[in-house]
Design goal:
This is Septum formation initiator family protein. Residues 60-94 form a coiled coil. Keywords: Coiled coil, Membrane, Transmembrane, Transmembrane helix. The chain crosses the membrane at residues 34-54. This protein is mostly helical and 123 residues long. The chain has one domain (14-104). It has helices spanning 12-91, 94-104. The radius of gyration is 46 Å and the shape is rod-shaped.
């Protein structure tokens, strides 16, 4: 084994410099830990509002889809109501009622023949 030619001086000045460098490293390590914990806190503070924002956006999308569905349903019901009210007005006319009954339930007077032609039924 080869013997080292370096001689280490162990005096008061060297000891102080070693202690200074150790304190410097410890302070730097503490600062790094502090900055790391601050960084984690900042990330956490940005994650919560982002999560809430995403959840709110998803809720908004669901409600918009529900609104579109309800508007379509409203249009369909309004159309049905218009047809029904039209039928009610037509049923107030006795002549129409007689035609309607004859066409729908094939009611006939004595001696009459009924021929069904598709598309000619009163509405």
């Amino acid at each position: 084994m080869k013997k080292s030619n370096i001689l280490q001086i162990n005096n008061h000045y060297i000891q102080e410099e070693l202690q200074k460098s150790q304190r410097y490293r410890q302070e730097k390590k503490q600062k790094n830990r502090f900055m790391g914990s601050i960084l984690i806190l900042v990330v956490f503070l940005f994650v919560l509002p982002t999560y809430n924002l995403v959840a709110s956006y998803q809720t908004l999308q669901k409600r918009e889809a529900q609104l579109i569905e309800l508007e379509d349903r409203y249009k369909e019901l309004a159309r049905q109501q218009k047809m029904e009210s039209s039928l009610v007005k037509k049923l107030e006319d006795e002549e129409y009622v007689a035609k309607y009954i004859r066409a729908k339930i094939q009611y006939s007077k004595d001696g009459e023949f009924i021929y069904n032609i598709p598309g000619l039924l009163p509405r």
